[in-house]
Structure formats: structure tokens, C-alpha cells
Write a structure and sequence with these properties.
Layout (H helix, E strand, L loop, with lengths): L4 E7 L2 H8 L5 E9 L15 E8 L6 H11 L7 E2 L2 E2 L5 E5 L2 H17 L9 E4 L3 E3 L7 H4 L17
Parallel strand pairs: 6-7
Antiparallel strand pairs: 1-3, 1-6, 2-3, 2-8, 4-5
Length: about 160
């Protein structure tokens, strides 16, 4: 059994985030779902307070939490509150769901680095939220842009160079 780890992030519509991360070095699996909300067993139609997020399974021998965060801040706009592209509402917030104090510390430091870079017009508004539970989205949302290559996404690599 490999010593894989998991990371949980939200950066707007989960389809685009998943599509970009699925091909990153060290990422072994992606699954879209709901994080940080108010109800049990959320669905696409009923997920109050939940962010559309992603569970990333990664090999720490090939990538790291910091490399994941660096890429995360390059593929979505972390300076908009509850919005990415045409999507609006708390479901589309920028958030990092930390599992321990090391991840929280690393996320805070990465936010400072991104802010100091001044690559974004505004300050980073990404929330740091304790991870509680990941609820997988319905099957039709998994690998959506693989199944629907012309489907909607507002995610793309905005900066080629790393923040770190």
C-alpha cells in the first residue's frame, strides 16, 4: 500500500479544478464533492454552506501540500469573494480545508506569499477552514470535463511561474 496523502481545496466550480489537477505530477486520484457545509449527505441541488471542492490523493514522494497550494493559487482567482467566473455564491468560495496545524501553517504562509507577489489585483480572500468531512458529489459530476470536453469551466493556468 502506498503512503498517499489527501488534500482538500475549493476554488469555484469543482469541474475545472479537478480537470487541471488530474494531470499534475504526483496526483494519483481526484474526486469532486462538498466541504464545509451545514447538512449531511449534500447534493448538487442541496448543499447549504458547502463549497464545491475537491479531494486530491497525492504521493508525497512526488509532490507536496505546498506544491498543490502553489498550483491552486495559479488556476483560480483567490481575490474574489464567493465567486469564480460566472459562478456566484458561497458554494464557489476559495477555501483550503486543513487537516492539521502543519497544513494550516503552510496555507497561511502560502497566502502571504501570494499576497506579497501582487500578481492578483486584490488581496487573497481564501478561507482556511478545518476539514470535517468530504461528501463525494454525484457520479455525473465526477470527471465531468472528461465526459463533456466542451463543458463549462472558468479555470485555467493564469501564471506559468510558481509563487515559490
Amino acid at each position: 500500500m502506498k503512503n498517499y496523502k489527501k488534500a482538500y481545496i475549493a476554488g469555484g466550480c469543482f469541474w475545472g479544478v479537478e480537470d487541471l489537477f488530474r494531470v499534475r505530477p504526483g496526483i494519483k486520484d481526484t474526486e469532486v464533492g462538498y466541504l464545509g457545509g451545514d447538512n449531511e449527505n449534500p447534493t448538487y441541488r442541496n448543499h447549504p454552506g458547502h463549497a464545491e471542492g475537491i479531494e486530491l490523493t497525492y504521493d508525497p514522494n512526488e509532490t507536496s501540500f505546498n506544491i498543490i497550494l502553489d498550483y491552486f493559487f495559479r488556476i483560480h482567482d483567490p481575490s474574489t469573494v464567493d465567486r469564480q467566473g460566472n459562478d456566484r455564491g458561497s458554494s464557489y468560495r476559495s477555501a483550503i480545508f486543513f487537516q492539521n496545524q502543519d497544513e494550516k501553517r503552510d496555507a497561511k504562509k502560502m497566502i502571504e506569499i501570494v499576497d506579497d507577489s501582487r500578481k492578483w489585483e486584490g488581496k487573497v480572500v481564501t478561507t482556511l477552514e478545518p476539514f470535517t468531512k468530504f461528501w463525494p458529489a454525484e457520479p455525473e459530476h465526477q470527471d465531468y470535463l472528461v465526459k463533456q470536453p466542451n463543458g463549462y469551466t472558468c479555470h485555467f493556468e493564469r501564471f506559468e511561474e510558481s509563487f515559490v
